[in-house]
Amino acid sequence: MSTSRRDFLKAGSLSMAALAIGSHKLFGAAGAGIYLGIQLYTVRDDMSKDPSGTLKQLSDMGYRYIEHADYHDRKFYGYGPADFKKLLDGYNLKMPSGHVVMTPSDYDYAKKDFADNWKQAVEDAAVAGQQFLVSPWLDERLRKNMNDFRTYMDVFNKSGELCRKSGMKFGYHNHDFEFNTKLDGKVLYDLIMKYTDPALVAQQLDMGNLYNGGVKAMDIAKKYPGRFELMHVKDEILSTKGEDKYESTVLGKGIVGTRQVCDFGRKSGTRYFIIEQESYQGQTPLDSSREDLQIMKKWGY
Question: Of 110, 132, 177, 180, which cross-links 97 as Cys (Cβ 3.0–4.6 Å)?
């Protein structure tokens, strides 16, 4: 997890609007029932400058699925939900999943209901064609004591119920803090897995971020087989800059054992594999994205 990505999410948590598994048949597959895509944070600078042109380049490379990381004011990269879906359709792309940070202010405990902005986020995700609405952050205030944390895990499950009404599933995506933070002597990630209902909350394993939390991706995948409906496909090397020990790199060039984690995930039920690379070691993000896709295809995805 790079410093820039962490800062991006913290900022987003303040400003963002914040099981339809059977519908898989709507989407083509890379292999039997496997869906291979790219997290657009990989090409974030390109998307900020030219969303349409960047999506075209990704489509021309051979990508057919994307996952967004930019939802503000009811827009994806400046486009309304229906317009963004139309743009994707024009490039033969689909968006089965996307990231929007759910914050404590998105649920009104007095009314026992979600705030309008979160309801709108769910609505817009459905219009854009998503099957998963994934929150990639847990507010720091919710990591301080067990009571606040447990209460918010109930909100996670309620969000799953809300998403299900729109034919989607709510999800959570890890970073590193979940693995080196403890509440009442228990690792936070284990508590997240314990108190979220798998029928309501999908887990997206980021196999790179957790290295900065002091654990290995394969160990977590084996500890919770069958729990990861989605994976962020990454590889990691020792960081060349920034505060983190590790940074992402081209797949197969680092320490993660990316192919082995993906293969284990596929055997235990993972169907959505989303490539994400945040550091590039001199390559352009688009060139890295092309190389990552070629590698995954060589691996049979």
Answer: 132
Closest to 174 (Cα-Cα) out of 265, 90, 74, 99: 99
Cα dist from 114 to 69, 81, 119, 165, 212, whole Å: 21, 20, 7, 14, 33
The rounded Cα 219 to chain-centroid distance in angstroms is 20
How far is CA 103 from each of CA 9, 10, 12, 63, 132, rounded to the nearest angstrom? 11, 10, 10, 31, 17
pLDDT tens readout for residues 64-123: 999 999 999 999 999 999 999 999 999 999 999 999 999 999 999 999 999 999 999 999
Strand ranges for the chain from DSSP E: 35-39, 65-68, 71-72, 75-76, 94-99, 107-108, 113-114, 132-135, 169-173, 182-183, 186-187, 201-206, 228-233, 235-238, 246-249, 272-275
The full set of domain ranges for the chain reads 3-298
CA dist 29 and 19 (Å) reads 18
Percent of the chain having pLDDT more than 90? 88
Residues lower than pLDDT 70 in the chain: 1-32
CB 96 within 8 A of CB 128: no
The gap from C-alpha 116 to its chain's centroid, in whole angstroms, comes to: 23
Helical ranges in 166-274 per DSSP H: 177-180, 188-195, 217-223, 258-267
Q: Does the 3-298 domain belong in CATH 3.40.50.40?
A: no
Query: What pLDDT does residue 76 have?
Result: 98
Angle at CA of residue 205, ends 202 and 211, nearest 5°: 155
Instruction: State the distance between the two ends of the chain, measured CA to CA, in whole angstroms.
Output: 24
